[in-house]
Amino acid sequence: MSLEFHLLSGGSITIHTPECPSCESKACVKVCAEQSPGPVLILGEDGRPCLKPTLTEIKRGVCTECLGCLLECGIHGNNVVRFQAPLEGLEAYLAEQEAAGRIPIYRQDAKQVEST
């Protein structure tokens, strides 16, 4: 089970919420409360983050896309927040780099990485 919401930029944030009740810091909710115009994430009764505004309001830009939830969860929480952003031209650029023999680490298998 995950909480996913789409953003004005065309990107999305996904929180893998089964891990959230065991998180002691609730860092994503705390940092979101500090943002203007106000929190997007609030703490639900079950110890998991939930949305304060509607999905429509979020997609219209209520979420400022500060990525505080991603960073704080990664540093102080259970590292369960993911951000997906549309990057125009990225795939074409990566294909060009791979054709030239420059393969990004995350696209290499372990044997390729060890030999570099």
The side-by-side strand order for the widest beta sheet comes to 1-2-5
Distance between the termini: 38 Å
How many helical stretches? Answer: 5
Mean pLDDT: 89
Uncertain ranges:
none
Which geometry do the CA atoms define? globular
Share in helix: 25-40%
The rounded Rg comes to: 17 Å
Note the main attributes of this structure.
116 residues; alpha+beta; 2 domains; three-stranded antiparallel beta sheet; two-stranded antiparallel ribbon; 5 helices
Write structural notes for this entry.
The mean pLDDT is 89. 34% of the residues lie in helices and 16% in strands. The relative contact order is 0.19. The chain folds into two domains: 82 residues; 28 residues, no CATH class. With 116 residues, it is α+β, with helices and mostly antiparallel strands. The N and C termini lie far apart (38 Å). Helix 1 packs antiparallel against helix 3. The radius of gyration is 17 Å and the shape is globular. The chain has a three-stranded antiparallel β-sheet. The protein has a two-stranded antiparallel sheet with strand order 3-4.
